[in-house]
Design goal:
The protein is mainly β and 307 residues long. 8% of the residues lie in helices and 50% in strands.
């Protein structure tokens, strides 16, 4: 599982630098294993990629559910995933997983109404990320072993189209405890902002790329006396998450897509999140006595119980 997620993450960092204009790309997948059957949702592939459209699908089977939301637009990408399952009665293992990616690339012209072509400028790149990962699992010694994890990675790249090489390469990620290997740089991604500077000139073309990749997994193995307890849950909440802005005095940045990356003109306006977590998880329909005990129990109970 970990190796598969790592392959997706690394693959997004290597994209062709020739023939760039503008494009977005989205992928999504979710699956539930009931212990006796494996059921998948409708996967999305690059052929479905449309700027600003939020792709959503989910699958429910037995006592498990998995869901993805994916959004890709120029300068802005986002993901929202969840996986949840309960222990089945009898000697059955259950699991649920979801993974997704979203990316854009755009050829951006550095323009100015104040400076002549070829004038050197120093550009500030502002990279804003707002995402959260969460996982909850409960094991019962001698009866149930369970695990849940979630991770989220944001990648940014700006290249000079004249072949001079990378002007900016940056990756940041966050993951739940006990899930090592997916994140090369681990930081909090809640309302995070990163700023970098690079030199270019008026009239230059910048090859701008941004991507996000994330995964969630929840699994339970139980023996015949375990019954239907406990519940596992993993979530990535970052549907309105990753934004790329560029700024320099007297300069504007216009993509082949038509998107303007200027920080001061308010581009990259936020896309609304689902109205509530309950909407995202609607239909799971499993609620068990005792889940409301304690802080973590109450949070898990809110997730697993229909509103």
């Amino acid at each position: 599982m970990k190796a598969m997620f790592k392959t997706v993450a690394l693959g997004l960092l290597f994209i062709p630098l020739s023939g760039w204009s503008a494009a977005v790309n989205t992928t999504g997948f979710c699956e539930v294993n009931t212990g006796s059957d494996v059921v998948g949702c409708v996967s999305i592939s690059p052929s479905h990629s449309i700027p600003s459209v939020v792709f959503t699908d989910s699958v429910s089977a037995g006592i498990g559910k998995a869901q993805y939301h994916v959004r890709a637009d120029y300068g802005n990408v986002g993901l929202s995933l969840n996986s949840q399952t309960l222990a089945s009665s009898g000697q059955f293992s259950t699991s649920a997983q979801a993974k997704a990616s979203a990316e854009f690339w755009d050829e951006v012209l550095v323009t100015s109404g104040s400076y002549a072509l070829g004038t050197p400028v120093t550009v500030k790149a502002t990279l804003a990320v707002n995402g959260d990962v969460y996982a909850q699992s409960t094991s019962i010694l001698g009866e149930v072993t369970s695990f849940a994890h979630a991770w989220l990675q944001a990648n940014y790249e700006i290249n000079a189209s004249d072949g001079a090489g990378a002007l900016l390469q940056f990756s940041v990620c966050n993951e739940t405890p006990y899930f090592a290997g997916a994140c090369a740089l681990e930081q909090s991604l809640e309302n995070a902002k990163f700023e970098f500077s690079f030199n270019t000139f008026v009239g230059s073309l910048l090859l701008v790329h941004g991507s996000m990749v994330a995964g969630t997994y929840a699994g339970v193995g139980a023996n015949e006396v375990a019954g239907s307890f406990p519940g596992n849950f993993a979530e990535v909440g970052a549907l309105n998450s990753s934004h790329t802005y560029l700024s320099a005095v007297g300069v504007s940045f216009v993509g082949a897509s038509g998107h303007v990356y200027d920080l001061d003109v308010g581009n990259g306006a936020e896309v609304s999140e689902p109205s509530s977590l309950a909407l995202m998880l609607a239909g799971f329909g499993a609620c068990f006595a005792g889940l409301g005990r304690g802080r973590t129990g109450r949070r898990l109970g809110r997730v697993l119980c229909q509103r």
